[in-house]
Amino acid sequence: MSRKVVRSSKFRHVYGQPVKADQCYDDIRVSQMTWDGNFCSVNPKFLAIVVEASGGGAFLVLPLAKTGRLDKAHPVVSGHTAPVLDVEWCPHNDHVIASGSEDCTVMVWAVPEAGLVRSLNEPLVTLEGHSKRVGIVSWHPTGQNLLLSAGCDNVVKVWDVGVGQAPLSLDDLHPDAIYSATWNQDGSLLCTACRDKRVRLFDPRAGGTTANELPRPHEGARPVRVVPVNDGKLFTTGFSRMSERQVALWDPRNPEEPLTLQEIDTSSGVLLPYYDPDTNVIYLTGKGDSSIRYFELTGETPFVHYLSMFSSKDSQRGGGWMPKRGLDVSKCEIARFYKLHERKCEPIAMTVPRKSDLFQEDLYPDTAGPDAALTSEEWLSGKNAGPILISLKEGYTPQKTREFKVNQTLLQGPKRSHEGTPSGGPGLELLSEDLKRLQATVSEQERRISELEKIVKK
């Protein structure tokens, strides 16, 4: 009688736990767009959600502590003239967020320290250069002020946000629409999936020369998603000829044959992968799914090991993942997913059960901190550097507002921005200008009242 040997793993018993109802974010009109995006981004201070908006595109920015029912008059970020398709917080500044839209522009916004007190419609910088809608925005993981955008015009651009220009524009590399674009961990390579069924891995500074290419990672016609993982490998999700959802792991040096290929189910939603390089765990979510699957990647066959699945009765419209520095290490939380329902956002904590209350060093190796390792000029000149790591042993305390400098010439015309940011908050200059205008109006009113009183006395 043979016994099945169970693989030993400290993540084998990871479980998902939704928060209580009063800790959800309710009465949010989540975007109804059919775009296969997350529609959500989160950091240790704020939660951003793309919402329905009349006459343009908008997204909410909420402090994490502002749970419960949302006021219908809550301010939004509403500078785009068409629906917003993607948002992402800057990894090096918790008050700066980028958005891509159907209006063919990318906008970079500064959120005040206390969150929005009134609707924000004046971006720091407007980045114009795409000829069709922009569906992907992604900050560089280690370079300061570097932002990638990809649109339905088949073009990938890397912007230096500080000067409002795109020093790198790859116009001819992709013959069709780009489904996904993801940096590797140190930002030296970019990995894209295109409608032509090919996955490309390349250095955007090399002028569009493809380093490695997977000719057809999945046979189906539906979109492919790809994320670079440790050891230079690529993890892809896609569909078979029979429309079964699949996951695969590839070594780019051998693009003809995957290291492993596994079929998941027959649902129709595109699987969106999220990879945690600290634990080597990958999480899969899909629009319309009501579950989150998670796998562990190892160096031994079959390389991709199924761990477990979190299920609920409600399907998801999208969601965002909290960076590692925003997790609760005292509860052995290794990931947190902010699940978007039709009218609310529900945080789900992924936890490793441990009896001890002490810091678990094996679960929390040093992780990427908020400091950039390179300036934009250094990265563009060819330098590479891994992320600057921090320890979570004492927990992570968000730092005070960081300065976000923008070239003074951008203050003119549509690319209006605010040079530097005072320590009180990224929106303080804007508020001080409004205060001056208000004081001038009050002074004018007082002058008129004084003149009327003189006339009455006469």
From TrEMBL:
Q: What PROSITE patterns does the entry give? A: WD_REPEATS_1, WD_REPEATS_2, WD_REPEATS_REGION
Signal peptide: which range, if any? none
Q: Domain (DUF1899): give its ranges.
A: 4-68
User: Is Coiled coil among this UniProt entry's keywords?
Assistant: yes
Region: Disordered; residue ranges are 410-430
Q: Which regions does the record annotate with the repeat WD?
A: 77-119, 127-169, 171-212
Q: Which UniProt keywords apply?
A: Coiled coil, Repeat, WD repeat
**An MF annotation (GO) of this entry:** actin filament binding
Please indicate which superkingdom the organism of origin belongs to.
Eukaryota
Q: Name one GO biological process term.
A: actin filament organization
Family of this protein? Belongs to the WD repeat coronin family.
**The protein's name:** Coronin
Q: What is the lineage of its organism?
A: Eukaryota, Metazoa, Chordata, Craniata, Vertebrata
